[in-house]
């Protein structure tokens, strides 16, 4: 047995004599610490490889295509987003306003009144017969106030103008939202790459601390700080990747297709 392991064994024996429970003995036994150390190292390398693979694939989606510049990708995203249901809804609403305008223009015709009268009195000239004129009577009632004011027509015309302005506002908002989400997605990719580089350094520091702890050169508290720093960094990368996935889902909801198909 090596000197470092002998010291760990002596600590383990002292824990027994102090009345610690068997579960605590196992946790601090030399064999368990060595096995656990190897397991942690293997798990750390596995997570590191997984995160590097994720970062590589995410970075490749955004940056690996030199033939597709960002300006082209952004234009594709905007064009697809403008074909979504949000803008189409405003287009249909504008058609409703146009129909209301046509109805207002023709509404005055419903107020016209046409009347006719036929006088059936005889026109034979006799001394006792009175003449009644006219024999035929036609009448037309025109609502001049409605025709001259045309208030409903003007109101319907203003509704059409407002609808067009709202449609343009929705168009600009959709463009800004999809570009914002895409740039946030790219920013998350760069942050993940930076944090993965930092994780590599933290892993190296943890391996050194682990080796020194096995040799009894540092205390358990120092070893625990190194292990916690490694776990915190992994959790930070997981959170960044989750946020990146949320940005991607928002983009795909707006464009109606997968983001990978646009980046190709």
Tell me briefly what this model is.
The chain is mostly helical and 264 residues long.
Describe this structure in words.
The chain is mostly helical. It has one domain (3-105, 151-263). It is built from nine helices and two strands. The chain has a two-stranded antiparallel sheet with strand order 1-2. Helix 1 (3-17) runs antiparallel to helix 2. The radius of gyration is 42 Å and the shape is rod-shaped. The two termini are 58 Å apart.
Beta-strand percent range: under 5%
- Would you tell me the overall average pLDDT? 76
Span of the ends, CA to CA: 58 Å
Largest sheet: 2 strands, antiparallel
The radius of gyration computed from the alpha-carbon positions, rounded to a whole number of angstroms, is: 42 Å
Assign the structural class, choosing from mainly alpha, mainly beta, alpha/beta, alpha+beta, or little secondary structure.
mainly alpha
Which overall shape is indicated by the principal axes computed on the Cα atoms?
A: rod-shaped
Give the strand order of the largest sheet, numbering strands 1, 2, ... along the chain: 1-2
**Helix percent band:** over 70%
Q: Unreliable segments (pLDDT under 50, ≥5 consecutive)?
A: 1-5, 20-35, 60-66
Number of strands: 2
* Number of distinct helices: 9
The number of distinct structural domains comes to 1
The arrangement of helices and strands along the chain is HHHHHEEHHHH
Oligomer: single chain
């Amino acid at each position: 047995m090596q000197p470092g392991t002998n010291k760990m064994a002596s600590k383990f024996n002292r824990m027994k004599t102090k009345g610690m429970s068997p579960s605590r003995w196992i946790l601090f036994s030399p064999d368990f610490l060595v096995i656990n150390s190897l397991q942690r190292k293997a798990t750390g390398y596995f997570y590191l490889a997984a995160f590097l693979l994720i970062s590589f694939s995410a970075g490749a989606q955004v940056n690996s295509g030199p033939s597709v510049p960002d300006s082209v990708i952004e234009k594709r995203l905007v064009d697809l987003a403008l074909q979504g249901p949000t803008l189409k809804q405003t287009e249909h609403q504008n058609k409703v306003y146009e129909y209301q305008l046509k109805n207002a223009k023709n509404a005055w015709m419903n107020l016209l009144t046409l009347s006719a009268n036929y006088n059936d009195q005889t026109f034979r000239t006799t001394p006792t017969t009175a003449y009644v004129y006219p024999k035929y009577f036609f009448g037309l009632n025109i609502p001049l106030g409605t025709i001259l004011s045309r208030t409903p027509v003007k109101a319907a015309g203003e509704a059409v103008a407002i609808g067009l302005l709202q449609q343009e506002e929705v168009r600009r908002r959709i463009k800004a939202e999809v570009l914002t989400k895409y740039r946030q997605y790219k920013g998350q990719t760069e942050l993940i790459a930076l944090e993965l580089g930092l994780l590599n350094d933290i892993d190296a520091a943890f391996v050194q601390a682990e080796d020194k702890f096995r040799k009894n050169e540092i205390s358990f508290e120092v070893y625990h700080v190194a292990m916690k720093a490694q776990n915190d960094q992994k959790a930070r990368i997981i959170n960044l990747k989750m946020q990146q996935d949320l940005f991607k889902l928002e983009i795909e909801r707006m464009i109606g297709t997968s983001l990978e198909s646009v980046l190709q």
